[in-house]
Structure formats: structure tokens, C-alpha cells
Design brief:
heterodimer; A: 7-stranded mixed beta sheet; 14 strands; B: alpha/beta; 7-stranded mixed beta sheet; two-stranded antiparallel ribbon
């Protein structure tokens, strides 16, 4: 193309010069510059933006982007045992098929009359999550499990009118960073220790820390370190006796086999839906859920949109709409509850598809399968000399800590050696939990076959020898 | 009989007739109603005998009370029924791919190029774990890095974090940075006020409030411009910062924006620029020249990543060098040979969300900028603004429609119109007119609350729409306006061609009746005595 030739952009229909000229004529404008009369000269940039030269043809763009992406090595092409908040599971093809539908993909904020299907799909998402969690209220997803936990704790503060929360020390450290930031204005955080043998929450510390200031006791189940917290009933009872709420972050994919937190007394349950049919996406596949009982005092403290079912003027026709919209910042700006905005709705629809495909049987089977594979990996790896796992004497779901102190090698060294063998080893915990020495967090899911785990064991034996 | 020229039948008075739209209507049951015991939508790989033998009954290892007793009452469906159900629901959703989507003002509805969807769905993006060794993710890190470089050029800012999960998350992060900045200087106790304007997004008020600030909202002057005198009266030693959009949601550009920034700086506050409305000023004017300390862009709006029914998204947060140390961690660095994640920001506000931002969204935005370049981005802005002023002229030709403020002046990328005169004359409300436009296959959005502009409607025709598209949208509005005057009942009882008919909103605000899940609804119906057996 000759220099300075006019480019007609495929994405910009009115970039055709004649069209532009005709529209300008109709507006009585000399040029588009007239539309910027309010932008003073000293605020205008004089030079073109310093951007790379464009790749105007789609084929050129494709070659370029593919070239960049090819530098990545995927978890599919390797053997990945990383978890720590982002999980490798099989994503059913139907999930991808539905979330790439242009109608859902490119919809946004239409009214129920434009977007009935979007409202119904997200109502169904909330409804299926409600069954999984045994709770009656579930939000349209927020950004991620971090935000869900942070908001759940501020909800607890508002509901109780109290200003302190007690968090298990085993809380996912990155999430804890988010919670620290988010609770800063009005809630103080106190961390509770764990039993060094079992990894379970220290109930004596909890008893000592509970007071009339305590808004909530928060723990994750399974915990960040992979173990199933078995004292949920006691923790909730202690919290309730002190007038505090029990807030639990749950792993939704575990709930085919694990008791839903509501059943042992949780008042607010939160977590992340990424495991429900959403690819890892380099950490870009998250969505946060918050669930409670259907009590006005709770519902009115949600910042999120809540979609409800409602009749229409036609008998037998389902309608959907926003529940208690006036509580939101869309309606009330700073007088609303926290804020609401774009978050991760398409992942909510994706999770709905996943739960619809899995059904009760699929959720029970996948939960059992993950537990079995996790246990198998712990048994086989734990039999290697110097490799100590499980570090905690508790039931585990999907993740477990391996301590390598007995091998004389650091996690970093081991992971480097594993990588040379095509294996992504577990997350290095040595800076997050220094008291655990050279330890790593390994993750196993339904996609790891016996052969995969045996392969890891053989490689681990080599690299720790 | 002579052959009928169907083409001629589609023309009325020399123009194409309004389309006879009918939204898909499947009368689709709620998923739970479709459940058939025993059906399976997908199977889970069986546990191999070798594992089974080694581990035994794993569920027996669970602590007492931690083994689920009753299975979740999820629906049981075979795969074809799941596909069919969700495809039907998708058909009942009016995505931007389907309509002349100029009616969702402030949302920058534009074409999301399909090639970028191909990129976003490649395993080299979808199958990456965020904790993989950096040597295995050099491609995606390079894209994050290069995209940050692009945003630096577009805004003039010095560093960007791509971590916030959407625009409001970035606004919140900006408020948290302002808080951390004043805290670091020992002034947080004193500086507890954030100033915004009523025509900035509600989150510019709600997010700083959530971060612990008091919020002062400025109202425009008589001509609709943010009021500099009001700002001068509002700033004090309590001012922590200004959070403001420009152009505001009226499509009016504040020509004194740099004076606003100076006034706040002189008072000791910081200035954060909400660039949700950047589409009309790409390559024209930047945050840097106006003096801002912080800014954010919505990659799912201006940068073409699809809106996804409301996310996933990215609010890209830009900072000057002075404020960069406060950004969320990690940032992406490049040492000349390799790309890496940089955590060395001692004053960082920490984590706003997990990881490094929604990689597929950043990738789409990167590809979009690469497909346009500097001249293309400027073309985006100029055509978006041309389209907006063209539609403005068409809408103002509709009796009863007006564009309050800045009378006789051009607008940037959108306009907040008022249908007050029409509504008074016809006895209908803007909301009702909006619902009626759904019968013609387009969106129509009034405005955020409160309705400062009476009977508002906010239209933003981005660069994606052709002149014919704009003519069609304006013709729909003109037609509905005429209906409102001549046959208001058809407007009041709308929609008529939509998936559903008018919804009874009362149950949605009544704690006794609202139902946010199917189980709650079935329970409430049973308690009310009217329901049938729970499925």
C-alpha cells in the first residue's frame, strides 16, 4: 500500500472517505476536528501515538500473534501439578461452545426484555450453586474468590455491626493481601494459628480471640494447604455463641462429596467458580460467589446484582429481573452497598453449563475421583526417601503439602529439575509458610491419570536422589 | 398475475421500512424442570483399579460430619438437552453481534473482532497456569508487557497494572492507591474526602466510599460543564483526591480539566482519571497532558474485548512514576532478554485480585491495537465522534427530544438526551419508550441514577456503526416517539415482540416474595399454598 493512502478499516464502516465526507456535509462541519472544539490546544497531542506499525491484514495479525503465543508451553503439553487457587480440570466442550456464542459473548447490560436469556441463565447459575451450597441466595458472580471473601467479611461487619474478624492463618496469602486492603477502612483482622500436626484451626486460640467485637470467623474448606477442616460445626458454634457469623470459603468442586458449609453452620459461604468449566487462562478465569440464607438482613448487604424470578402479564410466562436494586451503587452511588459493575458474568453462565452437565452424580464422582488421586499421589510420593507427605495428618482434597527438607534440596532446585522432565512441580511455599521449611503445594485433579502420577513419582525419585 | 417485487415492498417513502423484528421466544422452562433422573451430561474418568486398590475408600477418611449426606439437587440432563437449553437462552439474548448497539450509552458497544476470539481460545492462552515457570510463559508475558507499552503511549502514564478485574475494580484500586499515598505521608487521618462529579460513573463515588473516604459530588454549571468554582469551594486540607470522567457521561468534554487537576494538586490531593469514555479521544488528548496521577481504561469497552454479559473484563490502571510504587503486584518487567513478573514494590497496595489480569482480555485488546496502529486508533476516535454528532442531529429532529447542556455545541462520543418534552406531551416515560424500542431489536438505556437529566436516554454510537445503522436507529426512535404521541398505549404495554412480556416488578422488592434461586422460589410458592410439587 502506498504511504499516506487512506485505509478503509474493516472494523470501521464509516472510514470510507466518501461516507465520511457526506456525513460531515450533512452536519455542516469542515472536518472531525470541529467536534473537538472543547479540547484546548495545549491538551492536544501533536504527534501520532508511539505505537507499533499496524498489521492491517488479518492474516498478518494472525501470524504475529500466533508467533508470540507459540513461545508459551502449556499445561496440556506438560504435566502440571500446580494449583494454589487456579485449577486444571477438564473443561467440557459444551462449556466452551456456549460461552463463545456471540449472543452471550457480546451482550452486556440490557433490560430483561432485550436479554431474557442472559437473566435466565444467570438465575439458573445461582439456582444450581444454591443446590450445591444448600443456600437460597447466590449473587451474580463478582470478580473472583478474593473479592467474594473480602465482601463476605464486610457484609458480616455490617450485619453484626462489629469491627473485627478472625481468620485462619492458613488462608491463601494472596487472598489475605486482598482482604487486608479491603477491610482496612472499618475492620481489624486477627489471624488464628493451626495445629502443627493436623493443620486444623486451633480452637483454643479461637476461643481466646472471640469477643463482643468479633464480626466473623473465616476459614477455607478445604484450606489453602489442601486439608479438610473437620471442626466446622465447633467453629460455627463458637462463633455463634459470641454473636459472630461463620464465613467459609468453599471449593465448589468438592461439594459433591464434602458437606456444604451451610450444613455445619456457615452463615455466608464464598469462593471461586473457576474450577466449574472455566479454563485456567493464565489466571484469567475467575469468578466469585457469595451465598447466604434468604433473610432480608443478609440480602440487603450484598453489593452484587441478584437476579430473581417474577411473573409477567402473560400467565405461565417466566420473567426475571433485579432483586432489591435500590441497595446497589447503580441506584444509590456512594449510599449503595460497596459497588457493583462489570465482573465475570460469562463465567457464571459457563459454570451453569458445567453444573447442568455434571449433575449430582457427576459432582459426586469427580469429588471422589479427586480425593482418590490425591491420596494415591500422597501415598506414592510419601514413600520416597526424604520426601515427606502428607505433612498434615488430615483428609485432603486435591492439594497437599510435600516437605523436601529430608532430601537436602530446595523446592526451587527440585522444580527446575522437574521442569527439565516436562513437569510443572508444585507451588513453592517456603516464603509464604517459612515454618514449613522447604515445602511445596501439589495439586492433583481428575485429569491426572495413574500413569501421570506414577510418572511424577519416578521423576521425583530421580531429582531427589 | 405479475410477479411481486418484494424489494419494492420493503421501501416506504423512499426509505427502507422499519424491520419487523421478533425476538426469539422459546418459552423455555427453567433448567430444573427438564431434569430426568439418571441422565448424564458428561462422564468423569473412572478411577483406575491400581489407584482404587492403593487408596481404598477415600470418603471414609473424611472427618465425621464432613461427608455430604444428601447429594445436591442439581438437574439431571443428557448432553443434547443441555446444549439445546443454553442455545435457546443465548438466542433470547440480544448481543452486540446482533443489533445496532448504540443504545447502551457509556458502555462503548463495539465490534469485537472474531480473529481475536480465535486467539483468546488457543490452548497457548487457555491452558496456562499462572504459576508456571516464567521460561514457559514468555509469549503471554511479552503480550502483557507490549500491551502495557501501548497503554503508556496512549495515556502518557508511566506504568500500568492490568490486575483489576473491570473498570470499577480499577476505580477502587485507584482509591486504595490514593489512600496508601496519603497514609505514607502521614496525612490519611486528615485527608478523608474524595471529590467526584455527578456525571462521572456511580463507581467514582461508590468505590472511594468503600475505601473509607467521604464523597463530595459536584454538580455541573448551567451549561453542563463540571463547575470549577464548585471545585474550588470543595477542596480543602481534607481533600484526598479527585476521581472524574472526561468526557463525562453527557459526552461533554471538560475544557478546564487541567485546571481541575491543578486546583486539587494545590490542595494536596491526587487526581484519578476515569477513562471509561476514552473512545472518542484516543490519539487526541491524554491523561498525562491534563496532569493526572492515575487513570484507568476498560479493555472490554474501548479496546474491543467483548462484554460477556458483564465480564470477564480488565480495568487497566495507569500511574505516573511517582504513584507507580503503589500499584498492585506483580507488574511485568523485561530485562532485554526475558520477560518476568516483578514483585519489588514495597509500597504496593498488595492484591486487588488474583494473578496478573484476565489474560484473554488483554490479548484481545493487544490484537485490536495491533490491527489499527496509531492512525487507526485516531480513526476510531474521529469516526466514533462523527457518528455521535451525526446521530445527535438525527435525534434532535425528533419532536420532543433534546440534548440538555452545551446547547449548539458538538459532543464527543455520546449524548445524554432528554425526552422530557415528549414524555410530558404523551404521558409516557423514557423507560417505557426504551422497552418499546426492544420491539425493534435494539437496546435503549436511560441513564445512571439519579436522573439529573429528566427522562434521560444515553446513546453512544461507536465507530462500529455505519451511516445506515445510525439512520435505522434514529428511525426506530422517531417511530416510537410518534407512537408515544399517537398511540401511547402501545408504548405503555410494550414489549410486544420480545421474548417476554411486561414483568411484574413488585415481587422483586418484596422479601416475602423475591426468589433469587429456584429452590427459594419453590419454597415460597409452597408456603403460599399455590405451588405444585418441587421438581
Amino acid at each position: 500500500m502506498p504511504e499516506n493512502a487512506t485505509v478503509v478499516h474493516p472494523y470501521i464502516p464509516n472510514s470510507v472517505p466518501d461516507t465520511k465526507a457526506q456525513m460531515l456535509r450533512e452536519l455542516g462541519a469542515e472536518g472531525t476536528d470541529e467536534f473537538y472544539a472543547d479540547v484546548p490546544a495545549h491538551l492536544r497531542i501533536q504527534e501520532p501515538l508511539d505505537l507499533p506499525p499496524p498489521l492491517l491484514a488479518e492474516s498478518d495479525l494472525k501470524r504475529h500473534v500466533r508467533g508470540l503465543l507459540r513461545k508459551n508451553r502449556t499445561a496440556e503439553d506438560s504435566l502440571c501439578f500446580l494449583g494454589a487457587g487456579c485449577y486444571l480440570h477438564h473443561v467440557p466442550a459444551v462449556c466452551d461452545e456456549v460461552n463463545q456464542r456471540g449472543e452471550f459473548l457480546t451482550a452486556y447490560a440490557g433490560e430483561p426484555y432485550d436479554d431474557h436469556g442472559r437473566f435466565q441463565a444467570l438465575f439458573e447459575y445461582a439456582s444450581m450453586m444454591g443446590e450445591l451450597l444448600n443456600m437460597d441466595v447466590v449473587n451474580v458472580p463478582t470478580y473472583d474468590g478474593f473479592q467474594a471473601a473480602a465482601t463476605a467479611l464486610r457484609m458480616a461487619g455490617r450485619i453484626t455491626g462489629r469491627s473485627q474478624v478472625l481468620l485462619a492463618r492458613t488462608t491463601y496469602p494472596d487472598k489475605l493481601s486482598k482482604i487486608h486492603d479491603y477491610l482496612k477502612p472499618d475492620i481489624e483482622i486477627h489471624l488464628l494459628g493451626y495445629d502443627p500436626t493436623t493443620g486444623q484451626l486451633d480452637l483454643n486460640e479461637l476461643r481466646g480471640a472471640l469477643s463482643a467485637a468479633t464480626a466473623a470467623v473465616y476459614f477455607e474448606n478445604p484450606s489453602y494447604l489442601g486439608l479438610v477442616e473437620g471442626q466446622g460445626t465447633e467453629i460455627a458454634a463458637l462463633a455463634h455463641a459470641a454473636g459472630a457469623l461463620c464465613v467459609v470459603a468453599a471449593e465448589p468442586l468438592s461439594l459433591g462429596v464434602l458437606t456444604p458449609p451451610a450444613d455445619y453452620g456457615a452463615d455466608i459461604v464464598c469462593g471461586d467458580i473457576q474450577p466449574l468449566g472455566i479454563h485456567m487462562n493464565y489466571g484469567g478465569g475467575h469468578g466469585g460467589f457469595i451465598a447466604t440464607r434468604d433473610e432480608e438482613a443478609y440480602v440487603m448487604q450484598y453489593p452484587s446484582r441478584l437476579f430473581g424470578i417474577a411473573p409477567t402479564v402473560v400467565p405461565g410466562e417466566y420473567g426475571f429481573g433485579d432483586v432489591a436494586y435500590e441497595r446497589t451503587s447503580f441506584a444509590e452511588r456512594e449510599e449503595g452497598i460497596e459497588w457493583v459493575g462489570t465482573a465475570s458474568a460469562l463465567w457464571g453462565i459457563t459454570a451453569a453449563v458445567y453444573l447442568a452437565l455434571m449433575g449430582p452424580q457427576g459432582m459426586a464422582e469427580i469429588g471422589e475421583s479427586i480425593m482418590a488421586r490425591t491420596r494415591y499421589a500422597m501415598l506414592r510420593l510419601g514413600a520416597l526417601p526424604g520426601v515427606h507427605t502428607p505433612l498434615f495428618q488430615s483428609a485432603h482434597f486435591q492439594e497437599f503439602v510435600i516437605n523436601f527438607d529430608g532430601t537436602g534440596r530446595t523446592v526451587a532446585e527440585i522444580n527446575r529439575a522437574l521442569l527439565e522432565r516436562g513437569i510443572f512441580g508444585g507451588k513453592d511455599l517456603s516464603s509464604e509458610f517459612p515454618e514449613l521449611g522447604q515445602s511445596a503445594l501439589y495439586c492433583v485433579s481428575e485429569v491426572h491419570t495413574q500413569e501421570d502420577i506414577d510418572h511424577l513419582v519416578a521423576a521425583m525419585q530421580e531429582v531427589t536422589r | 398475475m405479475s410477479p411481486r417485487d418484494i424489494l419494492q415492498e420493503r421501501i416506504e417513502q423512499g426509505r427502507p421500512r422499519l424491520r419487523r423484528f421478533q425476538q426469539a421466544k422459546w418459552d423455555e422452562p427453567v433448567l430444573f424442570e427438564l431434569s430426568q433422573p439418571g441422565q448424564r451430561g458428561i462422564l468423569v474418568p473412572e478411577v483406575e483399579p491400581g489407584i482404587r486398590t492403593a487408596v481404598g475408600d477415600v470418603l471414609a477418611t473424611l472427618p465425621e460430619g464432613m461427608r455430604r449426606q444428601l447429594p445436591p439437587t442439581l438437574p439431571e440432563l443428557a448432553q443434547p438437552q443441555v446444549v439445546r437449553h443454553f442455545f435457546r437462552l443465548s438466542q433470547e439474548t440480544l448481543g452486540a453481534d446482533l443489533n445496532i448497539d448504540v443504545g447502551q450509552g457509556t458502555c462503548t458497544m463495539k465490534h469485537s473482532p472474531k480473529i481475536n476470539e480465535h486467539f483468546a481460545r488457543m490452548p497457548e492462552v487457555t491452558e496456562l497456569h499462572p504459576l508456571q515457570d516464567e521460561s514457559t510463559v514468555q509469549g503471554i508475558l511479552e503480550i502483557l508487557y507490549r500491551f502495557e507499552e501501548m497503554l503508556k503511549a496512549i495515556s502518557g502514564m508511566d506504568r500500568f497494572s492490568l490486575q483489576p478485574g473491570a473498570g470499577s475494580a480499577a476505580i477502587y484500586a485507584n482509591a486504595a492507591i490514593i489512600r496508601a499515598y496519603h497514609q505514607a505521608r502521614g496525612q490519611l487521618a486528615q485527608r478523608d474526602e474524595i471529590i467526584t462529579t455527578i456525571f462521572s460513573h456511580p463507581s467514582d463515588a461508590a468505590c472511594p466510599k468503600t475505601a473509607g473516604f467521604k464523597v463530595i459530588t459536584l454538580y455541573p454549571d448551567d451549561d453542563g460543564y463540571p463547575d470549577l468554582e464548585a471545585l474550588k469551594a470543595a477542596v480543602s486540607e481534607r481533600t484526598a483526591g479527585l476521581m472524574i470522567a472526561n468526557p463525562e457521561d453527557t459526552g461533554i468534554f471538560n475544557p478546564q480539566i487541567d485546571a481541575f487537576v491543578r486546583v486539587v494538586h494545590q490542595a494536596g490531593g491526587l487526581c484519578a482519571y476515569d477513562q471509561a469514555n476514552a473512545n472518542g479521544i484516543l490519539g487526541i488528548t491524554r491523561a498525562r497532558e491534563a496532569g493526572f496521577d492515575l487513570c484507568h481504561f476498560n479493555l472490554h469497552k474501548t479496546f474491543s474485548s467483548p462484554h460477556g454479559c458483564g465480564g470477564p473484563a480488565v480495568g487497566a490502571l495507569g500511574a505516573t512514576a511517582e504513584l507507580a510504587p503503589f500499584l498492585p503486584v506483580p507488574l511485568v518487567g523485561f530485562d532485554g532478554e526475558r520477560y518476568f513478573l516483578a514483585y519489588d514494590l514495597p509500597q504496593s497496595i498488595g492484591k486487588i485480585g488474583p494473578w496478573y489480569g484476565v489474560a484473554p482480555v488483554v490479548l484481545r485488546a493487544y490484537a485490536w491495537v495491533m490491527s489499527l496502529g496509531a492512525a487507526g486508533l485516531r480513526e476510531v476516535a474521529e469516526v466514533a465522534v462523527l457518528n455521535n454528532n451525526y446521530l445527535l442531529k438525527k435525534v434532535l429532529e425528533i419532536p420532543g427530544a433534546s440534548a440538555p447542556y452545551a446547547r449548539g455545541k458538538r459532543r464527543i462520543e455520546q449524548v445524554r438526551y432528554s425526552l422530557e418534552a415528549l414524555c410530558e406531551e404523551a404521558g409516557v416515560h423514557s423507560e417505557q419508550i426504551g422497552i418499546r424500542t426492544a420491539d425493534f431489536g435494539v437496546h435503549y438505556w436511560t441513564s445512571h441514577h439519579p436522573y439529573i437529566v429528566p427522562e434521560p436516554v444515553t446513546l453512544e454510537p461507536t465507530e462500529s456503526y455505519s451511516k445506515d445503522d445510525l439512520d435505522e436507529y434514529a428511525a426506530i426512535l422517531a417511530h416510537v416517539a410518534q407512537e408515544a404521541r399517537e398511540n401511547p398505549e402501545v408504548v405503555r404495554t410494550a414489549p410486544h415482540n420480545s421474548t417476554v412480556h411486561k414483568i411484574d416488578p413488585l415481587p422483586l422488592d418484596d422479601p416475602e416474595q423475591w426468589a433469587i434461586t429456584w429452590r427459594a422460589w419453590r419454597r415460597k410458592m409452597q408456603e403460599a399454598g399455590g405451588g405444585r410439587e418441587t421438581q
